[in-house]
Amino acid sequence: MASTNFSTRATSGVKTMLTQNLIIPGARLPQQHAAIQTELDQAVAGVIRRAVFTPGQEVEAFEAEFAAYMGVKYAVGVSSGSAAVLLALKALNLQPGDEVISTPQVDISASAPVTQAGAQLVWVDIHPHSYNLDPEQLAAAVTSRTRAIVVAHMYGNPAEMQPILGIAARHNLPVIEDAALAVGATYRGQPVGSWGMLGCFSFSPGKILGAFGKAGMVVTHDAALAQQVRMWSSYGFDLASLKAIERGEIGAQFEYEAEGFNARLDELHAAVLRVKLRYLDEWVRRRRENAGLYREILADLEPEHMLLPQDTPETEPAFRVFVIRSPRRDGLMRHLAKSGIWSGLNYVPPLHLQPVYGYLGCRLGDFPQTEQVARELLCLPTIPELARQEVEKVGETIREYFLRS
Ligand SMILES: Cc1ncc(COP(=O)(O)O)c(C=O)c1O
Description:
The chain is α/β, with parallel strands linked by helices. Helices cover 40% and strands 12% of the residues.
């Protein structure tokens, strides 16, 4: 094994090179935007002309279009992916002492909201191939205090929803999907985010579908839950009184149902996202194509050098990134950086080893699969703007590292 800790010290020099010298980056937003410049300009100009910036016609239209895309009844635009997870949890009306099961191999945005919603985090290990919540571990972790399950589709790779939902149904538990990294991915042909009781999305700029700033969405088939998310994200306003105020009704009063948040989606972001949503399928198709090319180029490397992501017939990932595993990960990362190629240690170290979660008393060894994956994973760029030759260059640079050193 190349490294036994989770420090990124070994790669800190690499980071400097990455920001200064990238030939093949992890994001190319100027290029993405240049390709759809006229539509974006018109969308932004429309919002400026109307001068309505808080939720209005663009948010309403984007919510309807996103709901249709996802095949769900309701979509509520919110201010970020983190807000989406928090609002979804608040909609479930958790009480102190309630347990919510998740994994430590996620962004803190999928974890902190559990505590912020007043519940107790319970982590279980991941499946070593999907990098997502392991259904077997989940089954063993459910207690009489469990109130919800948060399943993230990490790196754009769908979690095993069927067994997870089966366990949830046996215990009558709601499942919240964190699809922040996986818009456009499907499981058994159905979009991820639409399987659980609530689905959460992030549209921050570097995501697969990115706004011009922070933005997110909660989707659900349940009208009452959608109302709760709307209420919690609108300062906790009683929604009827909010509508009356928005219509300018004489005598309309400020009535609150809860101490809520200011966390609705803005018009400008919605207008931009409406344009980009039209390109989402094409962008995801190109990400899959890039992933397919990596597979071809790297197929004959020995498993002791490097592992490719495992395909399953049930999942069509969106490939936010292409995750490989190698015991020589740190050296490979340095080699790629020297060639000007971005690679990333996304969501390393895992949360249970971060000082912020020291209060949970977890130790090294508690989640062996998570820890092994964290030692070995490396994320490669899949952005749709990469030319075929660039993906080939990344693949050939990796081959060169393993076959010549
Ligand atoms: C799994 C996961 N959930 C939630 C979020 C939060 O999204 P946002 O940055 O929009 O708050 C992220 C952000 O990267 C994420 O990776």
